[in-house]
Amino acid sequence: MAFFSSRPRIAVIGAGIIGLSAAYELAMRRGARVTIYDVRPPGRGASWAAAGMLAPAFEAAAEPGVHPRLFELCLASAALWPAFADELAARSGIDVGFDRTPSLAAALDAGEAERLRRIAAVLSTAGVGHTALAAAEILAMEPTLNPEVLGGLELASDFRVHNRQTVTALLAALRASSKVTFVEGAAPLKSAGGKLTLEGHDGVLVAAGWETAVIKVEEQGALFSLVNWDTALDDIDCHGGQMLSVVAGAGAPKRVVRAGHVYLVPRGGQVVIGATVEPDRVIDAPEAEVIEALRLEGVRLCPGLSDAPVAESWAGVRPGTPDQAPFIGETITPGLFVAAGHYRNGILLAPVTARLLADLILESKRSDLIEAFSPRRPFVGPATRSSAH
Ligand code: GLY
C-alpha cells in the first residue's frame, strides 16, 4: 500500500506493547501521525502481566510445533532491543531495566535435561552463544538453586527487561509527541461498498491481542466483528496465565532462571514466578490454589524463596496462533493491517514487529521475513490450515 500523502495518518487499535511500539515507530521514528485507540487502560493487558523475559533460545529455538522461522524473528528482535531500550529511556526519562545478563536454564529431571540438549544443539547449529553447565557450575553461578539440579545452560541470547517500565516509557514518549493522539474508546471503524474505513486515516493497524478478531465494525447501522473482513483473524486464540511475585531477599536468584515451564525473573526488588498456560481461558483474577502451587514450584527451583512474602499475584491472557508465532502484515481487506498473536514473546518481538509493519504500511516494503508471518500463511506441522484464506 503506497501513500500519496507526505504525512500519512494511521490508526492503531490496541495500546499494548505491540500497538504502542508500532505507534512509536510510525510516529516518532518515521514521521506519521497516529491515533491510538483502546477501550481499556493503555498498557495494562498482557504487556503488564508479562515477566519481561527476552528469550529467543528458551522460547523458540527447539519448541515443537512452532513456526519454522520464529527463532529467527526472535533473534532479529533481540538484536534491536539494546538500541530500542536506550532510545526509549532517552525520550521518556524512564529506565526500562534492560539487563543483558545471560539467563540460566536448569534441569531438575531427565526430561528437562533432554530438552536443554535439544536447545543446545539448535544453538550450536545457528552459532548462537551458550554454555553447557554441570551441576556444580550452575550452582556456583546461582547458589540459591535447588542443590539437586542436574545441570543447565547459560543462554547468551536470553535477557530481560522491566516490561512495566517499558510500557510506561512508551506511553510517556508517545503522550509527549504532537504526532500522537490517544483515544480511550472503540475505534469508529465503518464498512461501506466493500471498503473498510476509519475517518481521517489512511490505514488501520489492529493490535488488540486476543480480542483482535472481535473488534467491531459498523455497517449500515449494525455492528459486526472484524473477523468478517479477514477470516484468518479467527485463528488468533487465547491462553490464560497466572503468576505471582515475591519479595527478593537474600535467598533470591540474581538472574533469570528457568526450568521446564517455571521461571524466576528478578524485577525491581521482587522475583516474578511464572506462569501457568491455560488454553482457551480468559482469566480475570488469580486463583489462590493455582498461585500457591506455582509458588511451590518456584520454591522447588530456588529453595531460598521459601519464606519470601508474596508481593503480588495476577492473571493475564496471551494471544496465540496455531504455530505460536504472530500475525504481522496485511489482511485481505485493503488498508487493514494486523499485529497480534505474539503468544509468549510479545515483549521480545515488539521492536521487530514495529519495524516490519512501518516498512510495510509506509513504504510498501515486503521483506521475506514479513511474508513469512503473514496472517494468511499456511500452517505447517501439527498446526495446519488447509488453504490460505
Ligand atoms: N513469556 C512467558 C510467558 O508467557 O509466560
Précis, in short:
It is built from ten helices and 21 strands. The chain is α/β, with parallel strands linked by helices and 389 residues long. Strands 4, 5, 6, 14, 15, 16, 17, 18 and 19 form a nine-stranded mixed β-sheet that branches.
Task: Describe this protein's structure.
- The protein has 389 residues and is an alpha/beta fold.
- The chain has a domain at 1-99 and 160-235 and 322-389: FAD/NAD(P)-binding domain.
- The longest helix is centred in the N-terminal third of the chain and has 23 residues, at 70-92.
- The strands form 4 sheets. Strands 4, 5, 6, 14, 15, 16, 17, 18 and 19 form a 9-stranded mixed β-sheet that branches. It has a 6-stranded mixed β-sheet with strand order 8-2-1-11-21-20, with helices on one face.
- Helices cover 31% and strands 26% of the residues.
- Strand 9 and strand 10 (195-197) form a beta hairpin.
- The chain has helices at residues 17-29, 46-49, 56-61, 70-92, 110-126, 135-141, 163-175, 288-301, 346-363, 368-372; strands at 9-13, 33-38, 53-54, 103-107, 130-134, 151-155, 159-160, 180-184, 189-192, 195-197, 203-206, 216-219, 222-225, 237-247, 257-259, 262-267, 270-274, 278-279, 310-320, 327-330, 336-340.
- Residues 50-51, 53, 241, 274-275, 318, 344 line the site of glycine.
